[in-house]
Write a structure and sequence with these properties.
It is a single chain. This protein is mainly alpha-helical and 507 residues long. Among the domains are: 62 residues, no CATH class; 241 residues, no CATH class. It is 67% helix and 4% strand. The chain is built from 22 helices and six strands. The chain has a four-stranded antiparallel β-sheet. A two-stranded antiparallel ribbon has the order 1-6. β3 and β4 form a beta hairpin. The radius of gyration is 24 Å and the shape is globular. The model has no long low-confidence stretch (mean pLDDT 87).
């Protein structure tokens, strides 16, 4: 009797990141260690501080003359007004340093330290999970979903369309990334009630917001800080970015429409069809489409409070300077109000909150593990070496080849430094001056940074994608199959716009 072949199961997010962490440790033995001198602004003493590896810090007056002396073409106000807060790499200061390889013991230690560094976002996610647990216990989600399903019968895609447009706008204006995690608990059950699957939930939220962020127009966390680090106004090149935004958004919406029609016609077409039952169990627990659950005034008020939390969060990030502690506090405040009006007993409230938070423990730990990978690369001091090597690789090329080379470089750097603001202040002072040498404006390099980095962040395990997939129990290989056409669309649109800009502005 033949033994049945075991079906291959793609590794989980934890396993993928653990393997990447081991590879990162290995790279610290292979890639030469190196470091740029870094410039920071000391607002208390109104002076610049230059930190160089194994040398005493040097201080300089916070003046334009100092920036010119260091060959940093950035407006002084960007430092003094707090626009640029992270250390800036100083051009021409790269040096090889003593190799700093990490060992086996650093694997577990980096995981712990990465988790500690991610404490703020983890608390935010736990608070969000607790809020969802309480609202689920009140029956508000159940009754609200049933009412929505009845009202949207026959026009279900309009919900997907509306969410996608809002996420694209959120991405291009304020760079919704980690914050998008908050939208899954409210929108995933809605999409499931409309007859869609797990992948389309990620498409309408993560894919749409990331496409918007890739074609950032006024996003302060990517294009604005990158332009400032390049020494130019962020409005330069905004017209081309806006054109790319429209084209990118159209591609996402059409792709989601195509996919939605396919799974409506044949549910088995779904890329996550095999996992549909476990996914529905996770997000539609207790939801019975045939049950009659009254949508009472109390439940409407609870859902209204829940929905209000999200525009408050967006306002706080854009206008109030909020970060995860403030966002978590706002969600917790609204949760407490919901607790008082829920009509639940004290023990039911506490149990539902802790149960809801516990369901997102795995998601939170993924964030810590990803941060651990970044810590290994930083402490191994190989990120600056990679940046120096890639900058030399593209310097001196003809303009069109140079800008396409920059696009490829930023795709690669997006894996090494999966932070838009972090990559901007690290790479832009080095990469932007290369544009001067080949005779093209610096804003075209900013565009290459934006489009290249985000093409990688759709896939980068060290970014947000594994957090999202873990939250929705979607295997990474299924996501790759779904997202590759959109990465192709992004790169085609980006490369075309870059070539057009070079042909118009090279001299």
């Amino acid at each position: 009797m033949e033994t049945a072949k075991k079906k291959f199961v793609f590794p989980s997010a934890f396993t993928i990141l653990f393997v990447i962490l081991i590879i990162a440790v290995g790279l610290t033995w292979i890639v030469p260690s190196g470091s740029y001198s870094k410039l920071t602004y000391d607002g208390i003493n109104n002076q610049f501080v230059v930190k160089t590896y194994q040398q005493d810090d040097k201080t300089y007056p916070a003046t334009k003359e100092t920036l010119d002396q260091l060959n940093i073409k950035i407006d002084l106000n960007n430092f003094t007004e707090g626009t640029i807060k992270k250390p800036i790499a100083i051009p021409g200061t790269y040096q090889r340093v003593q190799q700093n390889p990490k060992g086996i013991g650093d694997i577990a230690e980096s995981m712990i330290h990465g988790t500690i560094e991610a404490a703020d976002i983890m608390v935010f996610i736990f608070t969000l999970g607790g809020m969802i647990g309480v609202i689920n216990k009140t029956g508000a989600f159940n009754s609200g979903l049933m009412a929505l399903a009845r009202r949207t019968k026959g026009n279900e895609f309009m919900i997907v369309f509306s969410v996608s447009v809002l996420m694209v706008i959120g991405g291009t204006t304020c760079g919704i990334e980690e914050e998008a995690v908050a939208f899954y608990p409210i929108l995933v059950p809605v999409f499931l009630a409309l007859g869609y699957d797990a992948i389309i939930c990620v498409g309408a939220i993560f894919l749409a917001s990331s496409m918007g962020t890739a074609f950032s127009t006024i996003n302060p966390f990517s294009v604005v800080i990158a332009s400032n680090a390049a020494g130019i106004p962020f409005t330069e090149g905004i017209g081309f970015r806006a054109v790319g935004l429209v084209l990118g958004a159209a591609c996402v919406i059409y792709y989601l429409y195509w996919y939605a029609r396919k799974i409506k016609a044949n549910p088995a077409f779904s890329y996550t069809y095999e996992d549909r039952e476990s996914f529905r169990e996770q997000y539609m627990k207790g939801f019975d489409p045939n049950a009659v659950v009254e949508f009472t005034v109390r439940r409407k008020l609870i859902l209204a409070l829940f929905c209000i939390a999200f525009p408050i969060m967006v306002w706080g990030v854009m206008a109030g300077g909020w970060w995860f502690p403030q966002m978590a506090a706002s969600f917790l405040t609204i949760t407490i109000i919901i607790m008082f009006i829920s009509g639940l007993k004290e023990k039911e409230i506490v149990d539902s909150f802790t149960h809801g938070a516990s369901e997102l423990v795995g998601v939170s730990l993924i964030i810590g593990l990803a941060r651990g990978v970044n810590l290994v690369l930083e402490q191994g001091m190989i990120s600056d070496t990679i940046l120096d090597y890639t900058s030399q690789l593209v310097s001196g090329m003809p303009p069109s080849l140079f800008i396409l080379g920059q696009l490829v470089v930023f795709i690669f750097l997006g894996l090494v430094v999966p932070s838009s603001s972090g990559l901007a202040v690290l790479a832009m002072p080095i990469m932007a001056p290369l544009a001067d040498a080949v005779g093209i404006p610096r804003f075209i390099v900013v565009s290459a940074y934006n489009w290249g980095q985000y093409a990688m962040l759709f896939l980068a395990p060290t970014g947000l994608v594994l957090v999202t997939l873990q939250m929705l129990n979607i295997p990474f290989n299924k996501w790759v199959k779904f997202v590759m056409p959109m990465i192709g669309a992004l790169l085609v649109i980006g490369a075309t716009l870059l070539i057009i800009q070079v042909s118009m502005y090279s001299h």
